[in-house]
Amino acid sequence: MATGSLQVNRDIIIATRKQYMIERKHVTPMDAIMALAAMQNRPPYILNSIEDGRKVAVIGQVRLSETYDPVLSALRFVRDGADAVSYFTDHTIYSKDLDDMLIITRGIKQFPLIFHNYVFDEYGVIAARASGAAALVGYASFLPQSTLRRVISMTQRYKMTTILQINSIAHLEYMHELSPHVVSIGDPESENLTKAIEMLKIFKPHIPAYCQIMLSNTLYTVEEVEMAIKVGVDAVLVGEEVYSSGRKIEQMRKLVNRE
Length: 259
Hints:
It contains 10 helices and 8 strands. By secondary structure, it is an alpha/beta fold. The protein has one domain: TIM Barrel, CATH 3.20.20.70. Strands 1-2-3-4-5-6-7-8 form an 8-stranded parallel β-barrel, surrounded by 7 helices.
């Protein structure tokens, strides 16, 4: 898959993705996509089912790559103890994300699946639900406030977990207005973990107790996971590398249970 390893400018991705969605609306109009969404079982909870306050939720991220097998990747995360699976392909240009999401859903039935790709309107939310998404990310870093409000509102209407990505002080006002279940802190285009952690430290006092906290960054080592947990996150987003050996799996188990 030649495009799998390409890091594409986000503006190009957004423009291309919007075109894909226009084409999809012609093939599957709103009434049809709503009917498909209604056929899905109630979405399982994510990040609001941890009762004791001790366990840190682990979200395994499935990404488009040259060895892309989304179902196998998702099954590995389930096997190794992840609490949810995230699906993200918008680091490149790819048009079959919703189709692949549906395949993953069938492979990990009733396991929480987060749609991390960019969504621009209510149709995108419903299409994600029709493909089995139990949660969805609304990106404050590039969606206009009015659009973000509609996206989050529709996500809540379908009883999905709402994750609001923020990376500026101005976004804190959005957070209070929209009341998401989860706040994801950081720049989705940056892999600078130190910067994201510093941002979290600044934002954390302003985040209400009812919101769970996570970083937008995908973590690729046990050491990065430990850094995130030390600053007080409720969930970590991890790549498959974190579970690449039995020793790492054991280390992760101890970290997320705060033993």
